[in-house]
Design goal:
The protein is mostly beta strands. It folds into 3 domains: 107 residues, RNA-binding S4 domain (Structural Genomics Hypothetical 15.5 Kd Protein In mrcA-pckA Intergenic Region, Chain A, Roll), CATH 3.10.290.10; 57 residues, Ribosomal protein S4, central domain (OB fold (Dihydrolipoamide Acetyltransferase, E2P), Beta Barrel), CATH 2.40.50.740; 55 residues, SH3 type barrels, CATH 2.30.30.30. The chain contains 3 helices and 20 strands. The strands form 5 sheets. The protein has a 6-stranded antiparallel beta sheet with strand order 18-17-16-15-19-20, with no helix packed on it. The protein has a 5-stranded antiparallel beta sheet with strand order 5-4-7-8-9, with no helix packed on it. A hairpin with a 5-residue loop joins strand 17 and strand 18. Helix 1 packs across helix 2.
Amino acid sequence: MVRRHLRRSCSPWWWPVPRKAGGVWTIKPHPGPHPLEKCLPLAIVIRDVLRYAKTLREARYIISHGMVKVDGRVRRDYKYPVGLMDVIEIVPTGEVYRVVPHPVKFLTLVPISREEASIKPCRIENKTTVKGGKIQLNLHDGRNHVVDPEQARNYRTLDTVVLTIPEQNIVQHIPIQLGSLVVVIDGRNVGKVGTVVEVIQTFKRRKATVAIETPKKEIIRTILEYVMPIGVEGKPILTLPPEVL
């Protein structure tokens, strides 16, 4: 049986909710674009991260009255899951944030400009053939983008495409290759940023070992599945926390 409730003690370790205070239960996110272990319910973002509310009642009021947008669309569900690269806008104040990886907090919110808020990087998780012989790109946040077979040859799984929001048009393609600027999105090196200097291929491409040189000239190693391209020639297309640069 699927439970509608979530104990605080069973919530992901990085959620900013106290484990032994504030009651037994916390908010369980609804099924959506991000899995439970890699997302935050919208109410927790408003109450515990941005601190626009002191109680869940106040957070639900803010959300239900259309004061919060996610990826350019008003979300009134306080359990809506917010995750990697999502753009959150507080309508009354005009403040805009992006959810990005962080070495300590796993996921954190960084303030971004209005211009940057119009784009969203999405990683290609899979490619499937659909009716009419066209190719569907399955992206990390649950979106699906259909392209012509000729265009699809340029896109590989684990590459990044940059979409406009809310229109969802592809405006840029960032491949995963030597020289690409990447951010680690999972594993013990999560949140670290660097340039790909080596890829050691294995039987499964997702499990290939990738060596990344950070801005401090440190070499870290992880697997290809744990990295996301975010720029070329050392220039990121998005704002990152200052402590990772």
